[in-house]
Design brief:
The protein is an alpha/beta fold. The chain has helices at about 5-10, 20-30, 35-45, 50-60, 130-145, 155-160, 160-170, 185-200, 210-225, 235-245, 255-265, and strands at about 90-100, 105-115, 120-125, 150-155, 175. Strands 3-2-1-4-5 form a 5-stranded mixed beta sheet, sandwiched between helices. Helix 2 crosses helix 3 and helix 5 runs parallel beside helix 7. The termini are far apart. Residues about 75-80 and about 250-265 have low confidence and may be disordered.
């Protein structure tokens, strides 16, 4: 009556998944906050020739969908577009992220991001970090990368104190403070902090400060060198930075002569 042939009615697909679904389950277990698009990039790196539609189908069949965490209600504020930096090391953004150990003792993380390459320049972890501590940590990071032209921060007391202001003036760095209550003016570091909390802080149970430092340092390395970044067309921040530097579009400031002299005497 339906005009349906028996061969179609009893057809069973003979297609084999060649271990793809098993590998997706393994990767999803290792990176529980990754969706199917980032998992698709990872399996392609491993040699699987597969499009995103098939990955999505297997992803749903295995029940791997990421559970969305509740977000705070947004606050209606004026949006201010950010200017794209002309090259690596031109503009950095930094902020603080707070967490706690298993004992309840708080820990403080200073996060620093290169706005152009999206690289995590530094994630410093300590019980307390004051203005002088911020200046010392930035000085250590600049020994390897050179000094940026601009550092964007909020108006926290650690960023508006005399210690950081003197450090910036001595090294020719401009401190750009956003308006109070408008975190969208520092959107690059806010986005990074969201990934940092979601994929690292919320996924680990820190017993000691040393354990927290080790696991956060490992996550930072993975973020820079392994994790595909959606705004960089699936490339890692390290790959994107290497591509820009190979093209010669570098906007960096070398370390000061004073710092070079200090290094040579040690």
């Amino acid at each position: 009556m339906l005009g349906l042939s028996r061969s179609v009615l009893h057809y069973a697909s003979q297609r084999k998944e060649d271990g793809l679904q098993k590998r997706l389950i393994e990767l999803a277990g290792e990176r529980r906050r990754f969706g199917y698009r980032r998992l698709h990039i990872l399996v392609e790196r491993e040699g699987f020739e597969v499009n995103h539609k098939r990955v999505h189908r297997l992803y749903r069949q295995a029940g791997l969908a990421v559970r969305q965490r509740r977000k705070r209600a947004p606050v209606a504020i004026e949006r201010r577009p950010l200017q794209i930096p002309p090259g690596p090391n031109h503009t950095w953004s930094m902020d603080f992220v707070f967490d706690a150990l298993a004992s309840g003792k708080p820990i403080k993380c200073l996060t620093v991001v290169d706005d152009c390459t999206k690289e995590s320049v530094e994630i410093a972890v300590a019980r307390r970090i004051n203005g002088q501590g911020v200046a010392d940590l930035l000085d250590a990071a600049c020994r390897f990368r050179g000094y940026p032209s601009i550092i964007r921060t909020d108006q926290g007391p650690e960023f508006t104190g005399r210690a950081l202001d003197q450090w910036a003036h001595a090294n020719g760095v401009k401190l750009m403070l956003i308006q109070p209550g408008k975190p969208t003016q520092n959107a690059y570091i806010e986005s990074f902090n969201g990934r940092f909390r979601d994929e690292c802080l919320n996924e680990h149970w820190f017993v000691t400060l040393e354990q927290a430092k080790a696991q956060i340092a490992e996550w930072r390395r993975d973020y820079n060198e392994v994790r595909p970044h959606s705004s960089l067309q699936g490339r890692t921040p390290a790959e994107f930075a290497a591509t820009i530097r190979a093209d010669g579009t570098i906007a960096t400031k070398p370390a000061s002569d004073k710092l070079a002299t200090q290094d040579s005497t040690k």
